User: Fold this.
Amino acid sequence: MSRCYNFSPGPAALPEAVLRQASAELLDWGGSGMSVMEMSHRSAEFNGIAVEAEACLRRLLDLSADYAVLFMHGGATTQFSAVPLNLGFPAGQADYVNTGHWSSKAIAEAGRYLEVNVVATSVEENFSTIPPQKTWSLNDNAAYLHHTPNETIGGVEFFWVPEVEVPLVADMSSTLLSRPVDIHRFGVVYASAQKNIGPAGLTLVLVHRELLGRAAAATPSLLNWKITADHQSMFNTPPTYALYLTGLVLAWLEARGGLEAIEAVNRRKAEKLYRMIDDCDFYSNPVAEHCRSLMNIPFTLADDALDKIFLAQAREAGLLNLKGHRSVGGMRASLYNAISEQAVDVLIDFMRDFAASRG
Ligand SMILES: *Cc1c(COP(=O)(O)O)cnc(C)c1O
Assistant:
């Protein structure tokens, strides 16, 4: 067996140590005589797993008891509906910042429920930048402001937190846990697990408790944050195995020194790849320097006729999933926490050799 370097945007690489532990515990978890997959979500064993996962997440984020931690279903996409349903009424209006593919999806879904005011968009710049807040046109009657701190496809990231009077909502799917962030500045933060947190199937939602209990009457119970909080995320059967694996990833992160330690590694990884791209005429990255993502780095080759050959040779070299999203083309390397610095070094060497042979 040989594992490759996997630069997938999601579902993405998981730490090998986590996969090994899961493998060792697959048939018999902790002497229980069964797999986590076979346990009742109401059992003492599984309850212990869920409680420890939440406690570990709270330690990593330094999260106060003012916030509920919810383990939900349906991915970030389901939260595109849950946000307006839980937070949008009675105002019936909300502000959204449009910085790319995922903001656009959130806007389209919210528009099914309420009046959406797009406070700013970078569509004219092909989503290669983030409009500064002084250019935004905020609506005084908005129930909340929604933004996407890291656009997984376009590779643009906010390195600042918007200052607004209304609750701030963030889709942090591809950035949560990549570096320290003060969650207390946000009303609601949500994230699909399969980028940087665990496997697909689990969605994390962090909500300030003051914002619970405002849901529109027709909100499905499973999308209702208060019902979810009141039932410790077990209103129905949660994605138990995904939650268990997420707990292992959180423990792995904590053992590595937490978010400050991982940020240092993540910055080194991203900086060296951007430097290589900038220094080499053969590659380019379109994103404005002040908002280049630490996690998702899109790049193009000087001649897109070479894309197929690049991907085939990368694959042969054990470098997987470098193809860019179909909406933008080119390449993209996702450098989540589980991607080692060595993996990035191997990628950079490969890119240099490829450019030298074609350039
Ligand atoms: C991946 C992603 C989504 C969609 O996640 P699903 O789990 O497929 O619903 C939404 N927003 C961002 C920023 C993402 O990276």
